[in-house]
Amino acid sequence: MTLNLTEETVPEGYERLVFAEDTESGLQAFICVHSTTLGPAAGGCRMWDYATLDEARRDVLRLAQGMTCKNAMADLALGGGKSVIVGNARTDKSPALLRAFGRAVQSLNGSYYTAEDVGISPEDMKIVAEETPYAVGLEGGDYGTGDPSPFTAQGVFQCLQVGAEVVFGTRDLTGRRVLVQGLGHVGMSLAEKLHSVGADLIVADINDAALQHAKAAFGATICDTTQVFETEMDIFAPCALGGVLTNATVEKLIAKLVCGAANNQLETPEVADALRAKGIRYLPDYVVNAGGIISVAGEIHKAGTRYRTERLDGVAGRIRTLLELSDKTGRTTTAVADDMVAEILAKASDAKRGAA
Ligand code: NAD
Questions:
Q1: For ligand 1, mutation pick of 149, 181, 213, 299 (most atoms within 8 Å of CB)
Q2: Could you list the residue range(s) of the whole structural domain that residue 23 is in?
Q3: Would residue 270 count as lying in a domain?
Q4: Does 70 fall in a domain?
Q5: In this structure, are 250 and 310 located in the same domain?
Q6: Are 95 and 156 in a shared domain?
Q7: Which of 29, 167, 186, 299 could in theory staple to 261 by disulfide, Cβ–Cβ 3.0 to 4.6 A?
């Protein structure tokens, strides 16, 4: 065994950051546990061609913190964590690398559960699971919940309908121009749902095969990835990577509503103010995209698919509450959501201290 684990110093507010390196398979990965206040940390594993280890470290820290917010808002007994594997998912992935990653996850002894994210498929997770029971989003078995992506897409779709009702006065999406950026596991499933209710789809991706599929199957109009913010639309659904909403892109964005699956869509928290000032309703990513983690939570808690059946509709319900509170208080939806998360975590910490 050549797996080497290094405990790194964490920023304030974080619990753990582990760097895992395996010379034999070429694995380089970070696993971050942001918070276990509500339960064991849970969050997907991303494989991405980061230019530097620093870039990967920054990403895992941001994503893990986002998972704490997501899991708290989704009312799950799970904390926040995330992992990233450094490398090209198309060319650098191998069973040996995934197994080495599985051993790294196992070394955290259940304080972190991993699942699929960008660049990692349910088939990959099956290989990771050969080394650890803390890999979820698996098919079959007594409690397997499978690929979380369709449930993420379902939650996003339902939130988009609630947002449309508030912004346009009707949840009917017939003829509404929706731009889906990123046609991966979640984006394609969302595009399919939007097409089925008559939305006018515009799609952008770096993957031509995905674009051609959306064009043929849903009559989607293809938009060059560089032209997203030059395109007129009613609703923007970011379903690729984070950081797409910046002060500069918001200045150009021609939409009334933003609702998509991508994590960390806002480059900085202040971008929420820029969106609000422009009259664009932003539905916070970590609230909207919780369907997938709700699905895998059923596996973690050994409740199976029944768990998500009972909870998935709650995602859109929370968005409605957030929009109402935002209107009532004149604050951004993100500020309202962040306060709700802080309150949930403070209550749980108090309860823990009381019990100790
Ligand atoms: P994926 O890897 O299956 O899809 C990502 C897609 O984005 C790919 O088709 C890729 O080609 C495309 N893409 C990459 N760069 C792009 C660019 N510059 N412009 C346009 N498209 C680009 O990933 P996914 O599982 O569908 O996840 C999408 C997003 O949703 C990610 O941010 C992920 O973290 C988030 N998310 C996913 C889930 C889930 O259940 N899979 C849950 C919560 C959040």
A1: 149
A2: 3-63+81-128
A3: yes
A4: no
A5: yes
A6: no
A7: 186
Q: Note whether residue 102 is domain-resident.
A: yes
**Residues acting as catalytic residues:** 82
Number of domains in the chain: 2
User: Chain centroid to CA 211: how far?
Assistant: 22
| Cα 1 to middle of ligand 1, angstroms | 33
Q: Is 282 exposed, middle or buried (0-12, 13-18, 19+ CB in 10 A)?
A: buried
**Cα of 288 from ligand 1 centre, angstroms:** 14
Per-residue pLDDT of the chain (356 residues; tens, 9 = 90+): 689 999 999 999 999 999 999 999 999 999 999 999 999 999 999 999 999 999 999 999 999 999 999 999 999 999 999 999 999 999 999 999 999 999 999 999 999 999 999 999 999 999 999 999 999 999 988 899 999 999 999 999 999 999 999 999 999 999 999 999 999 999 999 999 999 999 999 999 999 999 999 999 999 999 999 999 999 999 999 999 899 999 999 999 999 999 999 999 999 999 999 999 999 999 999 999 999 999 999 999 999 999 999 999 999 999 999 999 999 999 999 999 999 999 999 999 888 888 77
Ligand 1 contact, 124 CB (< 6 A): no
Question: 241 CB under 6 A from ligand 1?
Answer: yes
0.90 exceeded by pTM:
yes
Q: What is the distance in A from the centroid of ligand 1 to the CA of 104? A: 24
Residue 136 three-state SS? coil
Structure tokens at 266: 């806002």
Cβ–ligand 1 contact at 239 (below 6 Å) = yes
Q: Residue 74 falls within a domain, yes or no? A: no
CATH number at residue 198: 3.40.50.720
Cα(350) to ligand 1 centroid in Å equals 37
Assess whether the C-beta atom of 225 lies below 6 angstroms from ligand 1.
yes
Buried-state track 153-170, b at ≥16 Cβ within 10 A, e below 16: bbbbbbbbbbbbebbeee
For residue 10, give the nearest of 36, 40, 28 by alpha carbon. Answer: 36
